[in-house]
Write a structure and sequence with these properties.
Blueprint lengths: L4 E7 L2 E9 L7 E5 L17 E4 L15 E5 L4 E6 L3 E5 L2 E7 L4 E8 L10 H17 L4 E11 L2 E10 L10 E9 L3 E10 L3 H13 L2 E2 L18 H29 L1
Antiparallel strand pairs: 1-2, 2-3, 3-4, 5-6, 6-14, 7-8, 8-9, 9-13, 10-11, 11-12, 12-13
Amino acid sequence: MTTGITLVLTIQTKTILYLIDNQSDNCHNKFIINYYFKPTAPLEVKLSMKKIILSITIICLFATLGFSQALKPVQIDSLVTISLPANFLKKDTLGQQIYSGNGASGYMVVIKAKNPANTKPLDKERDLNEVLKNTVNDIQKQSRTGHIMNLRDTTVGSLKAKVFTLRVDNSNTTGESPQLRSFILIYTREAAYTIEYLIPEERQDIAKAELKAFSNSLKIAPELQRHDQYVSNDKGISFGAKVALYGGLPIVLIIVLVVVRRNKRLVA
């Protein structure tokens, strides 16, 4: 039984961790290597995605999906806990951890990637928004036929997170069933977390309960706060406020000048 493949590449002293997952529950199909959250520059946060397509002959990744497995809490680290199938697999290589397992209806993956020690902290919330936005776009770029659904912000504990579903439809080219990949993305100064639930689209109704249980089981310790994501809580002046301030100020000055001139005439 194969539930996932981990590949570690070291190129020019940079170690990159990939997770290979299936793009179909049929046999003899292509696999995609997914690379999530990984800042690459020490002075600014840049998230890059790599895509390698491998043609692999394998029996079936989802051969055991029909066997129900109860979820149990798993401590990813001292601050993050989530429930996974009882016989989940864990890969821990060079400070990066991947947890994966087959549930009753879908395939679950949790990736924790530590940020480099010299990664510059994000300054403001808009910087965090940019990091999350870039990561969503990079995940979408992995698939030529994938598109983002139900993209929204959410809060997990005190942390800001991004939630969305990537629908991948290769039915016109390969005849395989479309897939739904539900993501939760969390970024902190110390590490980034990618939570994924993968199912064939035809299973979405029967998988709702398991997806909800999996997603809701994600717990963040109260020690993790927004300042662990970005340094400053100052959001600056909003666009609307800027319009009101810089657009309204000249009008106020004109009114003041008119009143002053009128008063001078009355005094004269």
